[in-house]
Amino acid sequence: MDYSDNGQLKLAQEFVQFTNKNIFLTGKAGTGKTTFLRNLRHSTPKRTVVVAPTGVAAINAGGVTIHSFFQLPFSPFLPGFNTAMAGGDQKENSRFTHKLNRNKIKLLRSLDLLVIDEISMVRSDLLDAIDDVLRRYRHNDKPFGGVQLLMIGDLHQLAPVVKDDEWNLLREHYKSAYFFSSNALLKTDFTTIELKHIYRQEDETFIELLGEIRENKLSEKSISLLNSRYIPGFKPDENDGYITLTTHNNSAAKINESKLAELKTKIRRFKSTVKKDFPEYMFPTESELELKVGSQVMFIKNDSSFDKLYYNGKIGKITRFEDDLIFVECEGDFEEIAVKPDVWENVKYTLNEDTKEIEEDVIGSFEQYPLKLAWAITVHKSQGLTFEKAVIDVNAAFAFGQVYVALSRCKTLEGLVLISKINSNGIKTDSTIKEFNQNAETNRPDDEKLRESMIMYQRELILDQFDFLSIKKLFYTVRKTYNENSAKFSIDYQGFFDEMNRRAISEIFEINDKFVLQLKYLFQQDILPTENTQLLDRIKKAAQYYLDKLNSIYVQKFVDVYFDSDNKEIKKDIAAIIEKFDLAVAQKLASLEVSSQGFETIKYLKAVADAELDFKTKFNKKTVFIKEGTSTITNKDLYADLNAWRKSISEDSNMPVYMVLPQKTLVEIVAKLPANLKQLGKIKGLGKVKILQFGEDIIEIIDSYCERAGVERDATEIEELKPKKAAKTDTKLVSLELFKQGKGLNQIALERGFVESTIFTHLSYFVLKGELEAEDLIPIERISEMKEFIREKNTVSLRDLVVASEGRYSYSELRFILELVAN
Asked: What is d(CA 19, CA 455) in angstroms, rounded to the nearest whole number?
């Protein structure tokens, strides 16, 4: 199709390509909307998904249905009630919670352009449901989550279906059921582009007549001309190739069944082959075709072969069957068409993790001859088709636009025949559509508006790039979360946050306020930003500056810290907000990186989307331990030793770690290095019970660390406060005596008020003295297993062994085996 004579097509292409405007592409029947969509799929660099309201429309458009792609129910969407973003009790509206899988979420977040074909059939509430899903998963409160919409269709053709009970629910929220009454769309400055050049009809008189029907301005002259095609009792010759267009499925089916039964030839049945996922409602023709020689059929697909012998809507007659071929003869052709089975594919959109491009994956197929009986079809199923000859039976038209759709399927006025006369009262046009079209006509876009939109779009992207508000807010949220719960974190990060905030304000935010004013000043030049060399040079330099600052102020600092807390909820909350902060920084860095080489809109969009797709959080990693200068912790190896012991006790005794030893208490112990139980008792968070349960273990770990690290404590104070050796021996002896009485470790621990690991430590003392055998405490097989484990790990670091064992062996057991091997 040659588009050279239609500037509106070029205008539409450039609005899609170079702006973020939402577009309603419309036009009379036969103006090339479907061809435009087909070409767009291959030409746009934007990441695109095509959806349609029905299964057949989706197959014809090469896309998927709206409901399947967005996982939406078929019930009405009520604004403020269905969306979880509205808050409140969502129990009644749980169908709209949009539980999408990880890959679908990634796809939505990478999306640039959403094409909705046959938009005239899409209800306003369905468009708002799409908006709800996109905003939710893209974490973007702009309408449709910032995704550009291309809506293709003709409001004078098939209208949205809305039942009375559904409209009773929706009428309080919508002016009409048409898509342009969508609350989300009304928040956008969408533009309407109407294609004017008609490719289907060439007869100017017929074109004018259809235009009058479309606008509900049918003149008496035109009514008279139209009704001249009323031929009472018309019975076409079987060889003439007429198709009847009727308003109801049962009428079309009865005509086809009756005509087929009249043929005296033998019936042949052809079964389809359905593979994988291709639901019945999407079948383009019957699953089992029943055909005879002499059957009038219609091709339902364009010929994909080089010869292009048929097209969607071409009418013919079956002349013979031969092997796997059906031969069809069409009026005007010199020879029969040998028809083979063809394949329709059901596609699913997926995101290629390597290329970051949206791809179409075939998830099912339907194989059948591209034919259907065509003495009659419904007006609904004729949409998008072209007929040389048609009998129009729309006396029972029940929906707006049906008369127009039926008549506009014909290439010429002479090619149509009316079953009954048409009067102006029988042509239904919705006044709401008329009002919408009048408004669209007065705001028709042109090249100047395209240029304005391009300029505004580029300016918006540039300002977005140098908008650090989300990073600022997320940082403050992280800081606030920490400050409100600082007592529950092991490390004092107040200075860390204060310094970072001070630098961010002075080196990013205050400077950026002035830079944005410079940008707006440069924007005053009435040229495209991408053609403004002075502006582009400032953007490059600023991008590099902010790139360096974000890295030095945030990234290099946050990668070195871990916000550890005994309180799991607080730990989870701060981890979640830090991850959001990390993502915001990553996206900003990615956009600045490309702009430091030169700003381009497509590269900018791709960089931001790819940054989210590639995102793996770097901040707040468990494997990171606090580096020098970032915390007040001293004696870090002792901290790690005690932490490993604490976690082991927690697992053995099935109690939370904070009940063994609170985080703050652990930090204070590490700082003060108590030398005996009396000094240990002065540490906040350690009462008499915990000292009785864990005191000896803690002191022993501290003593071991001090000996390894060569740390000296005040000998006088130690000697003065050090407990008598006999006291230690006495408590061990009590455990030994109970053990010799045949009591188990668990029973002794309960009786004495200790944890089992402490009793194990008491008794291991006597094994090392030679008064008990090792296998009295641990089965010989487990001893051998632990010795082999220690040999494999090739380390004597108790902390490393505990971590490597992943809970298989306790801290006390591993310490005992190490001492046993050493002796």
From this structure: 8
Q: Which letter does DSSP use for residue 145 in this model? A: G
The residues, any chain, with a CB within 8 Å of residue 749's CB and separated by 6 or more, are 755, 756, 758, 759
How confident is residue 92, by pLDDT bands cut at 50, 70 and 90?
A: very low
364 bridge partner residues: 276, 346
The rounded radius of gyration (Å) of the Cα atoms in the chain is 39
Which letter does DSSP use for residue 338 in this model? E
Q: Phi and psi of 458, rounded to 5°?
A: -65, -40
Cα 496 versus chain centre, distance: 35
Query: Using H for helix, E for strand and C for coil, what is the string for 267-279?
Result: EEEEECEEEECCC
Backbone dihedral angles phi then psi of residue 434, each to the nearest 5 degrees: -60, -45
CA dist., res. 486 & res. 499, Å (int): 17
- CA–CA dist 96, 132 (Å, integer): 9
pLDDT score of 631 more than 50: no
Question: Rounded to an integer, what distance in angstroms lies between the CA atom of residue 148 and that of residue 737?
Answer: 80
C-alpha 496/C-alpha 630 separation (Å) is 7
- 0.85 exceeded by pTM: no
Asked whether 641 and 706 are in contact (CB, 8 A), the reply is no
SS3 assignment, position 371 = strand
Tell me the HSE value of 384 on the side-chain side, using a 13 A CA sphere: 22
Distance between CA atoms of 783 and 480, rounded to whole angstroms? Answer: 50
Collect all residues with Cβ–Cβ distance below 8 Å to 388 and sequence separation of at least 6: 241, 315, 331, 410, 411, 412, 415
Pairing relation of β-strands 296-299 and 371-373? antiparallel
